Amino acid sequence: xxxxxxxxxxxxxxxxxxxxxxxxxxxxxxxxxxxxxxxxxxxxxxxxxxxxxxxxxxxxxxxxxxxxxxxxxxxxxxxxxxxxxxxxxxxxxxxxxxxxxxxxxxxxxxxxxxxxxxxxxxxxxxxxxxxxxxxxxxxxxxxxxxxxxxxxxxxxxxxxxxxxxxxxxxxxxxxxxxxxxxxxxxxxxxxxxxxxxxxxxxxxxxxxxxxxxxxxxxxxxxxxxxxxxxxxxxxxxxxxxxxxxxxxxxxxxxxxxxxxxxxxxxxxxxxxxxxxxxxxxxxxxxxxxxxxxxxxxxxxxxxxxxxxxxxxxxxxxxxxxxxxxxxxxxxxxxxxxxxxxxxxxxxxxxxxxxxxxxxxxxxxxxxxxxxxxxxxxxxxxxxxxxxxxxxxxxxxxxxxxxxxxxxxxxxxxxxxxxxxxxxxxxxxxxxxxxxxxxxxxxxxxxxxxxxxxxxxxxxxxxxxxxxxxxxxxxxxxxxxxxxxxxxxxxxxxxxxxxxxxxxxxxxxxxxxxxxxxxxxxxxxxxxxxxxxxxxxxxxxxxxxxxxxxxxxxxxxxxxxxxxxxxxxxxxxxxxxxxxxxxxxxxxxxxxxxxxxxxxxxxxxxxxxxxxxxxxxxxxxxxxxxxxxxxxxxxxxxxxxxxxxxxxxxxxxxxxxxxxxxxxxxxxxxxxxxxxxxxxxxxx
Length: 683
Prior knowledge:
The chain is mainly beta. It is 6% helix and 41% strand.
């Protein structure tokens, strides 16, 4: 086939397609309109043949009736009805095809029209949709609605004189700017109270508040009828609702949180129950309430009708921290949080006294004893107060310590300087500073090794310490029995030593005794007394001077150790007889001395007066009269109440040639109250 013929046919097909589409869209094309009832409206009919006249018809509910007519020549004439005015009646007018129909007052009875070409009978059907513009809507103040578990804000608006039925569009404005909110609109219609042919519309706008944040918002509504297309003039908008503030609630802990019969200064006595109330200080909008949570986010407590929340706590609970938050349906970026940490007053349940094992109290030791009472931090809440008593004397009373140290404890250190040796009974009491009935006390003893404060004491005959001149008078050749006592210190002295010239006596215990005589040719004998102590720092000593007694000093007072020369009557007589007998023998006889063989013994004295050589005979001191047998008492060095110094006179020792100082180590004449004849008890 010739390609040119193919091209022609293709061109014809294209034009045919275009023509058919044109016919499809123009043949019987609608000229519908939307008109407001009671107002003027104009219908236009655009037909293809612009050289022919157009006339109009309306449908009266049964059939079409002419509004205008045209003759065979195409001349059209308006039928002069009261409701319509037809135009374009001149056939010469090229715009006659644009025939227009003016509806003077639109009514619901005349809603279908037809325009017809007078020559080819081309026509169009025009449907007119009638509406009644609603009155301006009125809206109520926004309210809250609980739907299921959600809280919604609800705005209800209404309008009269709507036709046909319509709808509402709500706009949510935050700070003057429209905002997208998840909403639902519920619409109801009812006959208008003003014109039953019209409708009264009521629209309810419900917005879920869970997605909203605190803001100032307003709502307005636009009411419009359902029409084929949007007609701006058919809608009516309301004014904005009064500004409504969405706000968070605020909460606070009650002033008496925690509260209870066993609560003091914010502390809860262990083993008891207390409560804390979280109150709403501002309800917010929508109104919120308070809610308690554990540290793990679990809800606890009891919700009250006023929005507050109460929490009960005991020390048996494992939760140590609670949070109170305002509960609201609004979206919280950073919710308010109030923390409550119940503090239970515990103990003290333990106490330690830290001191050294011993404390030597020597003049060279200038240190101070430090007594520390401490309570481990985990054994008491809150910090305790301490009382320290030493030997029943309060040194520290209800004083707070400090926290720290090597053992992480509450402790109080008290310096103390003992004045003398002995046992310190240290009593420490730690008391809960809030609940005084909670305390723990402990006692500990500390030995204070201290030497005696006073020097050794020589005792006088009246059992009193020697004072004044410390001179003791003794008769020539008599034996002096001395005692030295050391009291005080802790522990007691270990030994006492008396030194008189070359004589020394050391005894274990608190005292020592010694028996001495003043050496021949001397008038005085100095005696020293000292003692040993475990501290090694007892360096005090005492002295006493033994002095030969003179006749004019036979009676002494004060600290003089008196040596009595009077004896019992029987003893005195016996002594006088012996002296007289010896005197007679000496006067009449001469003493003879013989030597027997080589044994260097003296011969028995010859009392014969006929001896030719007066030096050949030996006169001896008569034998001592037989005195009642009475053994001397033993020394009891440890007897503390044995405090008497006695100087005894033995008249027979005066006849002996040995005048050296003697030490009596096994007998103690101080203890014998029933002295035998021949001994003199000092006054």
